[in-house]
Amino acid sequence: xxxxxxxxxxxxxxxxxxxxxxxxxxxxxxxxxxxxxxxxxxxxxxxxxxxxxxxxxxxxxxxxxxxxxxxxxxxxxxxxxxxxxxxxxxxxxxxxxxxxxxxxxxxxxxxxxxxxxxxxxxxxxxxxxxxxxxxxxxxxxxxxxxxxxxxxxxxxxxxxxxxxxxxxxxxxxxxxxxxxxxxxxxxxxxxxxxxxxxxxxxxxxxxxxxxxxxxxxxxxxxxxxxxxxxxxxxxxxxxxxxxxxxxxxxxxxxxxxxxxxxxxxxxxxxxxxxxxxxxxxxxxxxxxxxxxxxxxxxxxxxxxxxxxxxxxxxxxxxxxxxxxxxxxxxxxxxxxxxxxxxxxxxxxxxxxxxxxxxxxxxxxxxxxxxxxxxxxxxxxxxxxxxxxxxxxxxxxxxxxxxxxxxxxxxxxxxxxxxxxxxxxxxxxxx
Length: 430
Known about the structure:
Largest sheet: 9 strands, mixed
Radius of gyration: 29 Å
Distance between the termini: 37 Å
Strand content: over 45%
Number of helices: 6
Order of helices and strands: HEEEEEEEEEEEEEEEEEHEHHEHEEEHEE
Number of strands: 24
Helix content: 10-25%
């Protein structure tokens, strides 16, 4: 009989995922998860998960291409989905890039609770090169191959053999122009993208077709590229083709694997299951938009140094930096007595810390700009008669908790664009 997906199969899922990795002899990249943003589930039970992560180029060379594979699993190690992505932007040496990957999943796969996920992100950073084969005349006679020059694109590729030919015109007057190349991968690593660049121009220099193509090449393998394009027969009289070979090859690799905390609104959480004697809990979510803080010199540390320190912490930390940056405490003594009595916590408990803090940030023009969101879970003595009134009562304390703490002496508040507060009551009254 088939086992349900919730049955644990791996004693240590992370260790099992990392076991047996081959050492490719490449430089190491730093990969860090910045957070996970869950949305949904919607009316069809579909859940959207967006993972934010950072890649730091710790090599001495610029990276021109990132090949990224992300797997998402249950906490027990059962695979749910994989995403394959590429980033064709230069990541300079010593710099950090921030990226996102999204998944659509059925929420029912996680059972009644979704509070943790297991993720693996593997990043391969690549260098780039291009080698010209020169400009060649398109054969005037059909089915007469022209031999291509052999070239080497150091250190990755060698063109072992190649041919250029054209076909007879079809009944519509179109001619096929084809370029075939036999390539040898000179490296023990795969090449994520190899491109044959082959624009065809008429005798006046106007491009009439392109016979280029691109492929992934296995480690050390011989691979054949077939590129072709169509043009009218009269356009090929006196036509030329400008041939070049380009490719990306791995020079660095990095990986992150671990569990991620997930707070999915609208589903009963473990906190709700154990909340108070009533079985009821309240999740209060507060937001603050476009908060602006200026950097100031503090204890002989320059503004540039402060910015660099904060940027590194925000880029590299999986979770906790934003929570440590803000006040965070929801002040219960700011509530009027009727609302405070709804909170099933003893009078001596005056503050509640957030269970999650999310946000987006930017350091620009000597300022830190923040968009923040935090969740607090409060046990309830009873279901509120008017949730709107309670939401209004909590909006002030929640908003205050999102300000950057005075303990961060080198950030001075300037302004923000306001925010919002939402409530979700969970559980069944006992």
